[in-house]
Amino acid sequence: MSEPSPTTSPVIVVTGANGLVGSRVCARLVESGATVRAVVRRPGAEIPAGVEEWVGEFGDPAFAASVVEGATGVVTTVHPMGSDRDTQHRVAVEGTPVLARAARDAGVERLVHVSTAAVYDRSPSAGDVDESSALVGEDADDYAATKRDTDAALADVDGLTRVLVRPPAILGAGETSVWNALRPAAIRDEESARHAVPEQTFSWVHVDDLAGLVADLATGRIATSDDPEHGPVEGGCTAVNAAAGPATVRDYYETVTRAVGVEPLWDDAPAWTGQILNDRARGWGWVPAVGPATALAEIDAGLRGAQGDDPAAGR
What we know:
By secondary structure, this protein is an alpha/beta fold. It has helices at about 20-30, 60-70, 85-105, 140-155, 180-190, 205-220, 250-260, 280-285, 290-310, and strands at about 10-15, 35-40, 50-55, 75, 110-115, 160-165, 170, 195, 205, 235-240, 265. A 7-stranded parallel beta sheet has the order 3-2-1-4-5-6-10, with helices on both faces. The chain has a two-stranded parallel sheet with strand order 7-9. It has a two-stranded parallel sheet with strand order 8-11. The relative contact order is 0.14.
């Protein structure tokens, strides 16, 4: 098992540092005393105070080599969700390993990649999901397939410790938050978006709990182990699920529809009702602090506040 010297200040590179997850990870790292290099595509991006701005493309080998020089850890959070398949493949599947190889060549100790639980097969017949469960097949949507392929590409980059953190739906306030802002806006404005199977499992994690896990992994506060149930495997590639307490689609949709003033449209169809198991993460010492009631209340408060600020909202 290994962990950093307590007298050494970690230097962590974070991609997507102005995104929902990346910005929270940066803030947690700064709080822990780490030096943070935020990789952004354009100068002047909104990043947390105390973070160094590094402007460039992490898929460019020369820039990647420069930004990881002297670093102890790398966190990758970028995936162009919603882009076409070719763009997702180019940025994530091809680009992320460029940074990983640069990190390995520079002697970086760890790379923590924010993947997704969408890589798992969660068809109606699938049960509970752990890190050994089956992944999606070739019929998966572009996001799940390219996330799966990025994980596989990182698994092929030997020579440094890699951790694939797999969260389900990420809840938390923010203008770019899919589940707190973008999906609710669609539910408000589009009747087709109000359809859901109420008994279906809604797997989720709060962004602050996720950021805490990622930061602890990047800085080595979670020590490596020769047993993946006790910590990331030294020099290996270890997946870990980051999911919070159980909830259903009914819980989420009723919260959103009440807040935006529309009615949910319940469908009767087969749906996945298993759970994303987080036993491995708990074995590493991670315990999510935000429960479903708190997370849903945050969504409700944010949506009602947004309607108060925007006279057009809810119409």
